[in-house]
Specification:
The chain has about 475 residues and is mainly β. It is about 5% helix and about 40% strand. It is built from five helices and 30 strands. Strands 1-2-3-4 form a four-stranded antiparallel β-sheet, with no helix packed on it. A four-stranded antiparallel β-sheet has the order 5-6-7-8. Strands 9-10-11-12 form a four-stranded antiparallel β-sheet. A hairpin with a 2-residue loop joins β7 and β8. The longest helix is centred in the first third of the chain and has 9 residues.
């Protein structure tokens, strides 16, 4: 047990209504607000709380391997009069290119939890920010004890009143998750592991919290085959944990015969477990429902799919809530333009599709639906492949008739990398120079594409010596 007041305040005061998000360490300090932005993947992760939207831009897009372009960032938008405006941008204090900061985000009330799973040789980290009078302030940095390269701590994060959950899917070969629980002014940290996960199960790749329950996905590797050979996947699984007598205990291992990357997305909703399997049914994708009986035994309770199935749509890649509605991402729809499905609950605990949200993603592969989140009357759908992997967030609003319409698209404020000129800068002992990783080389100068006539969505080849 360890006494850290800031984290205890976070988990004790977090709003109950904040939605868990997909896809996720510390020295006290303050964050720089409004002056940084990454160049790739805006919309890889998203969260919503009240009238605020939080969008991660980790600097690279994991589903389509590309080199990191800048330190990651999270961009915060506020609604006023129906218009969404960015008012803050957060980065890690010593952010570096490709650190993955913003790959996972969760928001609750005045607190924000951000994962940076590629930081420090992919040992990973997670950052806690708190709203202050003059912006957002970094109050805590978390990391796994005795972390090793490849742990990917922070790959998934969830936040609820009294608890936070952080996934480390590379840890120990099978993965793990860390549960932080408040008690008075103190907090405890427990490492959760599965009872039967095999090698490369990636336990902790997705996490969700509700009440005294935690849900952890173990989908296995998720390779779409763009680079390096054919697609790779396992059947996958998800695990329910329950906190009893001050400790988290595994309550059930959830599997299905026809799973395909089951556990890539997870969501606890009103006592049910919803588990995405985006490779199921020839990559059409599915979401499987599980629920406990009166004795606490969990069993399968049905399967959700798109009303109009489409091969390779990856339905179930992401899960979120928008008020009482369920949001399901399908970034493979329309030859990877992507979409998000809105479902409503029936009286029997099932879900039926109300509408499919689409937008003009501005590119060959928008991957719309890579992340989904929402508030009572709005939804945010990330499309990080748009504009040549710069990324766009699409905001939809619910009308009086219950239908959803696109209200706006959001991107980060113009910022990006700054030029480095004026003489040689030497690689430091910790392998950094001007925010870039380095080893045995010095930096003479650097010009971003904006300095040579490029705009958003424009990339240049380093082979030609810009």
């Amino acid at each position: 047990m360890r006494s850290i007041r800031s984290l205890a305040a976070l988990v004790a005061l977090s709003a109950l209504g904040a939605a868990p998000t997909m896809a996720q360490t510390f020295s006290p300090g303050s964050a720089t607000v409004g002056d940084a932005a990454a160049l790739l993947g805006f919309g890889v992760a998203a969260a919503a709380s009240g009238d605020e939207i939080f969008v991660g831009r980790p600097g690279e897009f994991a589903a389509f391997p590309m080199p990191g372009s800048q330190a990651g960032s999270v961009h915060i938008f506020r609604r006023a009069g129906g218009t969404w405006t960015e008012y803050a941008s957060l980065t890690a204090p010593r952010g570096s290119v490709g650190d993955g900061f913003g790959e996972a985000v969760a928001a609750a009330g005045d607190f924000l939890l951000v994962g940076a799973p590629k930081e420090n040789g992919a040992r990973g980290a997670a950052y806690v920010f708190m709203r202050a009078a003059d912006g957002w302030e970094l109050v805590e940095r978390l990391e796994a004890p005795e972390g090793a390269e490849g742990d990917a701590f922070g790959a998934a994060v969830a936040l609820r009143q009294g608890a936070a959950l952080i996934g480390a899917p590379g840890r120990g070969g099978t993965g793990s998750a860390f549960a932080y629980t408040a008690s008075g002014g103190d907090w405890t940290r427990e490492e959760l592991r599965s009872s039967n996960a095999g090698a490369d199960a990636r336990f902790g790749a997705a996490v969700s919290l509700e009440g005294d329950r935690a849900l952890v996905g173990a989908p296995g590797p998720f390779g779409m085959g763009f680079v390096g050979g054919p697609p790779q996947f396992q059947a996958g699984a998800a695990y329910v944990f329950r906190r009893e007598a001050g400790a988290w205990k595994e309550a059930a291992a959830l599997t299905v015969p026809s799973g395909g990357a089951l556990g890539h997305a997870v969501l606890l909703v009103d006592g049910q477990a919803l588990v995405g399997a985006p490779i199921a049914d020839q990559a059409t994708g599915a979401v499987f429902r599980f629920r406990p009986d009166e004795a606490g035994k969990w069993s399968a309770a049905g399967k959700l799919g798109p009303a109009s199935p489409q091969a390779q749509s990856l339905f179930g890649y992401s899960l979120g809530r928008a008020g009482s509605s369920l949001l399901v991402g399908a970034p493979g729809s329309g030859q990877f333009s992507g979409a998000a499905h809105v479902l409503s609950a029936t009286g029997e605990g099932d879900w039926v599709e109300d509408q499919v949200l689409t937008a003009r993603t501005r590119g060959l592969m928008g991957f719309m639906g890579n992340a989904v989140a929402g508030g009572e009357d709005y939804a945010i759908v990330g499309a990080p492949g748009s504009e040549f992997f710069e990324g766009i967030g699409f905001v939809f609003v619910r009308g009086a008739d219950g239908g959803w319409t696109e209200a706006s698209s959001i991107i980060e404020k113009e910022a990006g990398l700054s030029p480095v000129v004026g003489g040689e800068q030497r690689c430091s002992d910790d392998g950094q120079v001007a925010g870039f990783a380095c080893r045995d080389v010095e930096l003479v100068s650097f010009l971003p594409t904006t300095s040579v006539g490029g705009g958003r969505g424009i990339m240049v080849s380093d082979l030609w010596g810009w």
